[in-house]
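Discussion board: Methods & Data

I've been asked by a reviewer to show the raw model output for two of the constructs in my manuscript, not just the figures. I'm not sure how much to include, so I'm pasting the format here to get opinions. Each protein appears as its amino acid sequence followed by a line of discrete structure tokens. Is this the kind of thing reviewers expect to see in a supplement, or should I convert it first? Here is construct A:
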Amino acid sequence: MPLKDLPADARPREKLLARGPGALGDAELLALLLRTGYHGKGVLQLAQEVLDRFGGIGGLLHTGADDLKSIKGLGGPAKRAEVVAVLELARRGAAQQLKEREVFSSPGAVKHYLQLQLARREHEVFAVLFLDAQNRLIEMEEMFRGTLTQTSVYPREVVLHALKHNAAAVVLAHNHPSGTVQPSRADEALTQTLKAALALVDVRVLDHVIVAPGDALSMAEKGLL
């Protein structure tokens, strides 16, 4: 049903303005962003289809423009660009929160941020969160791509970047495109190698987080550091 055919108090825009965003469901909020559906499918139906395809709002936050292109009704570049821009704002908002507060005052926020950044990548990415003396985020850098081993991740490069940022500590992170977040023996060995290398310049490794779509594991919480 087109939005204009709904009762006024049931239209997402009017409902939001009258009752606040908390009164809207996920599909209604997304429908406001999409604005229109296409012939035979209203915008609310399209919004629900998008959420179903990507596993809800959490999954949608991990998508990119190419993922959206596969959905009928999102083929136009303008609409895809608007959706991707909103998703990027959400990622940047998460990063800003980590820069303004101690990272480990909310470990869940760290996992969420890393899932937004890495979970949907089709290849393995190794990233480092460089932290100041108050454990606030200075910068996140994606440093290596491909199968991660002790030979493909270079401790010297991680140390040099830690010194460049004048970091007091780091959080290591990478994704598992396979979907499992269980660390391999190679992951554990790599963690210990980097921990030893960074200790030489008095930089602490606080955690190594492994992410996949819908899941994340902290090696520190598992006692693997």
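Construct B, same format:
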Amino acid sequence: MTTSSALTESLEDYLESIYRNILKKGAARVKDIAGDLNVRYPSVTSALKNLERRGLIRYEPYGTISLTKAGLGVALGVTERHRLLRSFFSQVLGVEQGLADETACRIEHVLPPEAYERFVQFMKFLFVSKGKNKDWLKGFRAFVEDNAVDATCPECVEEYFAGTGFDLKGGMRDAGDA
């Protein structure tokens, strides 16, 4: 019964589903999780046994599933990363809600703690500075409208950044580095 080994993206999704079902319905059941994740009951049962062995849930076949303290901590972390990323994609970048949610679900699992911490700081900075500069989001959206780029074309992206000081091979350069 150990939580020390890293969880797969799939197991994190199971914990997130359990948590959301508990919040929404007061309990989590195999059928709810299967529906959320679009998987079959035997897959859910296998994942639940794995999570139980790790000490993250309490599970009785044909009963409800509950989170342990450790499981709740993991579920809260995944859920919060998802919420913040979804908000960024939809509210800041203007990505359609469904795509924002799907993208957040994929990224939430691979975002290292250090990068997530900096991302949280960035989001707070954006929304705190929004009060001082009310037009920043409007300006960004206008920029997006006026500066389309085909991100599937490497040459187009290279041309898009030409002259900006952004080095595609290594990141941002200071003006003095050129």
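Answer (T.O., handling editor elsewhere):
This is acceptable in a supplement if you add a one-line summary per construct. For B, something like: Strands lie at 57-59, 65-67, 166-167, 171-172.
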